[in-house]
Every structure is written in C-alpha cells, then in structure tokens.
C-alpha cells in the first residue's frame, strides 16, 4: 500500500492510475481514522479533506485532458484542411498562370497603381514591364481614337491596341490590352471600299449627266435639222408655187396674144426735108470730128481670176500642209477602229478627206491641239412662249484650238451634200490603254463613231 507522499510524488501517472491510487489512499485513510486515537481522528479528517480535493483535481485533470485531446484533433483537422486549401490555391494559381499565358489578350494586374502581375502577351506590347513598376500609358503609344493606340513592337510591326480597365473584388485593377489590329484594318478597308463605291457612284452620276446632256444636244440638233429641212421644203414649195403661177400667167398671156387680132400696119411718116441750117450744122460737126484726136482704144477686159484650188466643201481656204497632217491623224484613228457614217458618202476615205479640209480651214494643224471647254449658259425652254418662264442653267461645250486660241464653230462643220445633212462632232474621251494609237480626241460623224472606245 502506498502512502500520501508516494501519491504526491507519482502524481504524473495516467488518469486511471491516479484514480486507482486515490481509491487505495481513501480506504487506508478510513481505516486509520477508525483505528486511531482522537488526535488521529483529527488528522484523519484533514486527510479526508485532502483526499476529496485530490479527487476533485483528478476529475478536473480528466476534463482538461479530454479538452486537450479534442483540441488536438481539431487542430490536426484544421491543419489538414489548411494544407488542402494551400495546395488547391497553388493549383489554381498555376492554372490561372497557364490560362493568362494562353490568352491572346494582354493582362496586367495593378495594385495601388503598380504592376502586380502580367502575362507574356503584355510583355510583347510593353517589353519594359516589371513587377512593382508604376503603370502609366507609354509616350511611344500614339492615340488614334478613344482607348485605341498605335504601337510598334520589336519586330517593327505596327499594332492597334484597345485598352480596357476592370476593377477586381479586392480593389485591385485588371488592365486588358486587346489586339484590335485586324478589326481596325477591316474597318479601314470597309471605309475605303465605301469611299470607292461613293466615288464610283459620283462618276456614274457625272457620266449619266454627260450622256443626258449629249442626248439633249443631239435632240436639239435633230430638231434644228428638222426645222431647217421643213423650212427648206416650205421654201421649195413656195418657189415652185411662184414658178407655177408665173408659168400660168405666161401661158395665159401667150394665149391672149394669139387670140388678139393682128394690128393694122402704121403708115410710115414722110421724111423730113433737110433745111440749109441742118446742112450747115452737119458740116460743122464733121469738121470738128476730123480735127479731134482719135480716141484711144478701150483696154481689153482682165481675165476672170481662177477659182482657188485649196478650198473645202464650204468654199473655205485651207493650208495644204495642215490638211495633210490632220488627214493622216484621222486615218490612223480609222485604222484603229473608229468608223464614220455620213449622208453624203459611205466611203471612209472621202469622209475623212472632207473632215480634214474643213478642220484645216479653221487653222487646225493637229487634232491633238483641240481642247474641250465646259461652260454654263442660260437657256429658255423651247416648248413655251411664256416670257415669265425663268431660264435654266445648262452646261455646254466648246472646242478650242489650243495652238491659236480660236474657237472651232461646231455648227459650221457640216456637209449638206447627198440626201441628208451631216454634222461633224468632236468627241473627248479616255480610251483603252490597249489601243495606244488613239488619242482622247475623236472627230465623229453624226455620233456614229465606234462607241467601244468611249468610257
């Protein structure tokens, strides 16, 4: 059996040993209290109090041990969970790093205005990037639109970057650098194509207006030709009517003269007797005539001047050298495919010859000296006689001989031979580059030159 000192010394035993030891001491104490003297009874009471205190301490020790065991298990579980979280965060960080590296967009994380992290794409557009560097838009980036910058990379390639800033949940900022080069260039190409379409539409409108003006001029010329032809027909009819009336009057006069009786012969008057005074006057006149000098013979009339040989079909003189050069140029155009049609002849050589003579009569040395001049004139409608109608502005064309500055009167370039009336027209157009022999000047007959050479 162990005593109290032994219990105190070995108090570091396990909880079960302490309880067993306490029970043993308690039994011994009770026996000692019963068997001892009154002084011993007092000591036994003290000892019993000690035993009770020891049992309370033992119970507290058990409770603390259980709590420590529970906390130890909780701590182990917490450490395991924390380790798992740390490992998960590490995996997530690695996955995010791999994801950022795979993104085609540059990503820069900013914390308090400084670079906290960035991916590889960002280092391409901003090679100077480092963690901890204060972020700011580089001066080498050229702003072209809002949040759009033009930059140059190490490979000397020009990129268009669109920046976008987003705020993260923890207060940091994420700067996204999108490569907008393809989009921007596609938009530029679309704008360029739209500009081309608008320009083509404008040119088509101008061409349509030009064709409409030419059609209006053609209709006006046809109307004038019809009016001239109508006037000619009316004049011929008037002259024919006058001739008919005159012929009828002549025939009527002849009939009246034939029907009239023959006039009676008029007796001849008796000769006037010559008086002596008449004889004296005749003699004096004869003497004067004999004394007067003989009159000089009248000069023979001068021969009529020969008709000029170098004249065109309208009677205008021309320079033979100018005629030959213009004829050569018109022949070259005809050999390249320009075909003419006139009312007075179907022979191209004869048409070209007449054209060349008429142009040469106005001092044209080369058809390439002819220049087009567009001007605006006021014109009243031909279908109304109302004086209150306002004139309209009409674009007209005149042709200038740039070598002399003289205007070519297009209304005088014509030929009235044959069954119709032929007007010459001078066209200005751009030709197919595959036919270099053609210039931008064509002398056409009644708009019948080959249209395939006009744009």
Taken together, the total number of domains comes to 4
The shape, in one word, is rod-shaped
Along the chain, the helix and strand elements come as HHHEEHEEEEHHHHEEEEEE
Task: Count every helix, treating DSSP H or I runs of 4 or more residues as helices.
Answer: 8
Q: Short summary of the structure?
A:
With 455 residues, this protein is of the alpha+beta class.
Task: Output the keywords.
disordered N terminus, 4 domains, 455 residues, disordered C terminus, Beta-Lactamase, three-stranded antiparallel sheet
Folded structure, characterized:
This protein has helices spanning 4-9, 15-35, 38-102, 120-125, 181-259, 276-291, 320-335, 348-361, and strands at residues 106-111, 114-118, 142-145, 148-152, 158-167, 173-179, 370-379, 392-401, 406-408, 414-415, 422-428, 441-445. It is of the alpha+beta class and 455 residues long. It has 4 domains: 4-96; 103-179, Beta-Lactamase (2-Layer Sandwich), CATH 3.30.450.20; 192-247; 320-453, no CATH class. The strands form 3 sheets. The protein has a 6-stranded antiparallel sheet. A 3-stranded antiparallel sheet has the order 7-8-9, with no helix packed on it. The chain has a 3-stranded antiparallel sheet with strand order 10-11-12, with no helix packed on it. The chain is rod-shaped, with a radius of gyration of 66 Å. The protein starts with a helix and ends in a 10-residue tail after the last strand.
């Amino acid at each position: 059996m162990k005593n109290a000192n032994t219990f105190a010394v070995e108090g570091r035993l396990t909880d079960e040993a302490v309880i067993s030891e306490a029970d043993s001491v308690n039994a011994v104490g009770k026996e000692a209290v019963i068997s001892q003297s009154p002084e011993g009874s007092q000591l036994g009471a003290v000892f019993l109090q000690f035993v009770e205190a020891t049992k309370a301490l033992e119970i507290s020790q058990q409770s603390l041990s259980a709590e420590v065991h529970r906390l130890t298990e909780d701590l182990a579980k917490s450490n395991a969970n924390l380790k798992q979280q740390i490992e998960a965060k590490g995996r997530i960080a690695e996955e995010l790093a791999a994801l950022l590296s795979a993104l085609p967009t540059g990503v820069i994380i900013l914390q308090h205005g400084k670079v906290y992290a960035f991916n590889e794409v960002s280092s391409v557009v901003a090679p100077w990037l480092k963690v901890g560097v204060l972020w700011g838009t580089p001066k080498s980036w050229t702003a072209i639109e809002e949040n759009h910058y033009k930059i140059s990379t190490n490979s000397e390639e020009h990129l268009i970057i669109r920046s976008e800033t987003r705020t993260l949940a923890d207060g940091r900022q994420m700067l996204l650098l999108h490569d907008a080069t393809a989009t921007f260039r596609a938009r530029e190409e679309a704008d360029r194509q739209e500009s081309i379409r608008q320009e083509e539409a404008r040119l088509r409108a101008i061409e349509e207006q030009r064709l409409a003006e030419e059609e209006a001029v053609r209709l006006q010329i046809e109307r004038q030709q019809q009016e001239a032809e109508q006037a000619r027909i009316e004049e011929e009819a008037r002259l024919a009517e006058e001739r008919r009336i005159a012929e009828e009057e002549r025939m009527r006069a002849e009939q009246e003269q034939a029907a009239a009786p023959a006039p009676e012969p008029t007796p001849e008057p008796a000769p006037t007797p010559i008086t002596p005074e008449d004889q004296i006057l005749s003699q004096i006149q004869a003497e004067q005539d004999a004394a007067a000098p003989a009159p000089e013979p009248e000069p023979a009339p001068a021969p009529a001047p020969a008709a000029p040989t170098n004249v065109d079909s309208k009677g205008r003189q021309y320079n033979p050298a100018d005629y030959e050069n213009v004829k050569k140029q018109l022949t070259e155009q005809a050999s390249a495919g320009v075909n003419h049609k006139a009312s007075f002849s179907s022979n191209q050589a004869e048409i070209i010859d007449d054209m060349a003579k008429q142009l040469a009569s106005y001092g044209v040395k080369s058809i390439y000296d002819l220049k087009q001049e567009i001007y605006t004139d006021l014109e009243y409608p031909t279908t109304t006689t109302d004086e209150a109608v306002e004139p309209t502005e009409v674009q007209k064309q005149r042709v200038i001989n740039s070598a002399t500055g003289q205007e070519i009167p297009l209304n005088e370039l014509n030929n009235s031979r044959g069954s119709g009336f032929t007007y010459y027209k001078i066209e200005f157009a751009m030709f197919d580059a595959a036919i270099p022999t053609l210039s931008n000047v064509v002398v056409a007959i009644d708009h019948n030159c080959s249209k395939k050479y006009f744009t």
